[in-house]
Amino acid sequence: MSERRKKVKKKALYKKWMSMLLAGVVTTTGFMGGTVTLRAAETTNWIGDEGLSGTADAPKPDDVVPDANQFRYQKEELAAFCHFGPNTFNEIEWGEHYGNKAPSEIFKLEKDFDAETMVKTLKDAGFKKLIVTAKHHDGFCLFDSALTDYKCTNTKAGRDLVREFVDACREEGIRVGLYFSIIDWSHPDFPKYGDRQHPMRNREEYKDEKIDFDRYLTYMHGQVKELVTNYGKLDLLWFDFSYDDMCGEKWKATELIQMVRHYQPDVIIDNRLEGSGEDHGSIATENPLIYSGDFASPEQIIPPMGVCDEKGEPIPWELCATMNNHWGYCNYDHLYKTPSMLIRKLVECTSKGGNMILNVGPDAKGNIPKESIAILKEIGEWMKKNGESIYGCGISELPKPEWGRYTQKGDTIYAHVYEAPLGALPLYGIAPDKLDKVYYTADGSEMNRGEAWNTALYTDTAFVSFGENPVFTYPLPDEKDTVLKIVCKKGENS
Q1: How far apart are CA 138 and CA 152, in angstroms?
Q2: Strand ordering across the sheet containing 425-427
Q3: What is the spatial distance between Cα 335 and Cα 364, in angstroms, rounded to a whole number?
Q4: This model's pTM is above 0.90
Q5: If 467 and its partner were Cys, which of 145, 213, 377, 474 is the partner (CB 3.0–4.6 Å)?
């Protein structure tokens, strides 16, 4: 039985708590263990299995401050998504209804899959978290569910791949999360005809089909219970997805969240039990519901102004994006985003108070494509030199500069310079008498001040030079993103 958590107003205090955490005022516990004193998206009354019979109370507003666990998750910034399943072997992008085909017909993995190598590759690239597709919309399970035969253990692979991913993540010390689709096109009691998403939505033979949706919900809830009870402590659950009236209590979301929190009280949960890429759901309102989730999840787009609630207060969010244009492996899609673009988009997310989860789609042998490995290697090299400007950072107090972006951690400001200046670099928002020192983050060397005869008119702006002479023009040390660590005189950067 959990202690009653202290309740305080969530949205009005978000910025205050963010600044306190970044300044080190809020003491956090270890993400993988320990206790926290505050919990978001939680009911005031804790329940056991006996209370999970469909008699849960109607949803109530979730008005608690995001806890240390949420903040820790939000400040780790970079996560990997792994979409791997039947679609990988059938060159299908999004989903499919495989009909009466046996698991071994649609999932053709045999012996090549190696979770340990994949996880180590991601860790070396600077990723702090990995989210794996335990089950996608097709209903096929990468885990050994006792509730269905439609699973990878009934194929030539003969293995619980979720177990292997979870074990590999723990071995490498990175956070582990599971993706679970709350829709299931394989289940006989899931709506088909007329459903906006189901592949069989226009098939007349399903028009008068009788289904028992409550039976489906029992099945779906049961599989979630398997995931939260059979794989140890999980760091994240990524539910997908809601649409039209298929959202919220249609999924018995209150009951589902109560069950999940019972077994995994510290798990972080996305917003897609009611929200989607089209709608953030009640997390973006003044009265988020208990199943609103811990963060919003914009998909394949970075919100122009970050994500805020109805009153303009920022809320946690995480971009989910692909490395090329497909979530799963696609052998003809070579439109990979460049390392420079992905690094800059990560910086953009961080500067707007968000995270980035980047999809890595293994091929049909379970290997990361060579194009992805090359990109990950470059991202990893950049992160090793400049990761302090990302991890633990967020929105800066300073306005966005013309040459790039600012991120900030406590009193430390990081300048991400994308465009070489003509002459010295203006540090917009920082006066010369407020600036203490500026360092190259990559090697820790101190930069030269850039004030000279040609900056004399601009007394409200400090300058730094990329070379010896502040009047001369020099190339950027790193064209992808040259990061500068800006130290202002104590208390004078605001």
Answers
A1: 13
A2: 425-427, 462-465, 448-449
A3: 19
A4: no
A5: 474
Average pLDDT over residues 175-181: 97
Residue 75, C-beta contacts closer than 8 angstroms, at least 6 positions apart: 21, 391, 392, 393, 394
CATH of 14-389, one of 3.30.930.10, 3.30.2270.10, 3.20.20.80, 3.30.559.10: 3.20.20.80
* Residue 325 CB neighbour total at 10 angstroms: 13
14-389 with 404-488: one CATH topology?
no
Mean local confidence (pLDDT), 395-400: 95
Looking at this protein, which amino acid is placed at residue 11?
K
Q: Which residues of 108-140 are buried (b: 16+ CB within 10 A; e: fewer)?
A: bbeeebebeebbebbbbbbbbbbbbbbbbbbbb
Question: To which residue do tokens 């053709």 refer?
Answer: 108
Domain boundaries, the chain: 14-389, 404-488
Euclidean distance between CA atoms 53 and 217, whole angstroms: 12
Residue 384 one-letter amino acid: K
Cα(472)–Cα(400) distance, rounded to whole angstroms?
24
Q: Is 293 exposed, middle or buried (0-12, 13-18, 19+ CB in 10 A)?
A: buried
Is the pLDDT at 493 greater than 90? The verdict is: no
Please measure the distance between the N-terminal and C-terminal CA atoms of the chain and give it in whole angstroms: 44
Are 143 and 151 in contact by the 8 Å Cβ rule? The answer is: yes
Distances (CA, A) of 119 to 64, 74, 376: 34, 20, 12
Averaged confidence pLDDT in the chain = 86
| Contacting residues for 157 by C-beta, under 8 A, at least 6 apart | 107, 109, 110, 111, 113
**Residue 306 DSSP code:** B
The single-letter code of the amino acid at 483 is V
What is the Rg, in whole angstroms, of the alpha carbon atoms belonging to the chain? 24
Q: pLDDT band at 400, cuts 50/70/90?
A: very high
Which string of DSSP letters, residue by residue, matches 360-371? ----TTSPPPHH
State the CATH architecture for 404-488.
Sandwich (2.60)
